[in-house]
Design brief:
This protein is mainly α and 73 residues long. It has one domain. Helix content is 84%, strand content 0%. It contains two helices and no strands. The chain is elongated and about 85 Å long.
């Protein structure tokens, strides 16, 4: 028994890591990734879309203005 104890301490880390990886993989496969429809999330996504559109339009206006300024010079 005295000769086995050091080997058990040496194998404790890899065995525990293997068990943890197995538990995590088992947990992921058991659940279906069904998105929940939260009205707050939908509202935030629409606001992000509006802000991106406004930024795109603003960049287009600034690009057009800088192009017209270069044409005048």
């Amino acid at each position: 028994m005295d000769h086995i104890l050091p080997y058990l301490f040496l194998l404790a880390c890899p065995i525990s890591m293997g068990v943890m990886m197995w538990m995590m993989m088992r947990k992921d496969h058991g659940q279906a990734a069904a998105p929940t429809s939260d009205p707050r999330l939908a509202e935030l996504e629409s606001q992000v879309g509006e802000l991106r559109l406004a930024l795109y339009q603003r960049q287009g206006v600034e690009t057009a203005a800088s192009t017209s300024n270069l044409d005048r010079e």
